[in-house]
Design a protein that fits this description.
By secondary structure, the chain is of the alpha/beta class. It is about 35% helix and about 15% strand. The chain has a single domain, classed as Response regulator (Rossmann fold).
């Protein structure tokens, strides 16, 4: 779909405080590690719901990233119709997000909408919401989004 030199990616979960800001941070970090930043115009995240607009990421999500040397700098936002033309790829965390995004996607918009977990080489397709669970859920998510980040860069032909 893209020429692999001006790619924009939006990561989406429900509230944009746990999974999608983690995916955004890990993907941006992975892009930097592979010196691929010149291939990306924008890397961001959002939520399908507006419960947390303006909030910082969940402290457990941010701490998990920091523990792995991944910086997090994000404020929650809600997906709007403009995102579907602003981004080439909108990658979401679970089937509920996918269904919501497919419903919201305006006709004729350019974004390819799919599950981020589709790019996990281990086939762990659903990145489950860790919000109501223990810390190990955040660690599991971190491993998933790390693998999916590499897998997505492979999909784009950049690795």
């Amino acid at each position: 779909m893209t020429n692999n030199t001006n790619v924009s990616v939006l990561f989406v979960c429900l509230g944009n405080i746990c999974r999608s800001p983690m995916a955004e941070a890990v993907f941006a970090h992975t892009v930097q590690q592979h010196q691929l930043a010149d291939h990306f115009t924008k890397i961001d995240s959002a939520g399908t719901a507006g419960y947390h607009v303006g909030d910082k990421p969940d402290s457990r999500s941010a701490a998990t990233c920091r523990n792995h040397g991944v910086p997090v700098n994000h404020r929650a936002q809600k997906v709007t119709s403009r995102h579907f033309d602003e981004f080439d790829y909108i990658l979401c965390m679970d089937e509920s997000n996918l269904e919501d995004l497919q419903y919201k996607k305006p006709a004729g918009s350019k974004a390819e909408v799919s599950l981020f977990g589709d790019f996990d080489p281990q086939g762990d397709r659903i990145i489950r919401d860790p919000y109501y669970g223990a810390l190990d859920g955040f660690e599991h998510n971190f491993k998933q989004v790390t693998r999916a980040s590499e897998g997505f860069l492979n999909h784009l032909g950049l690795l």
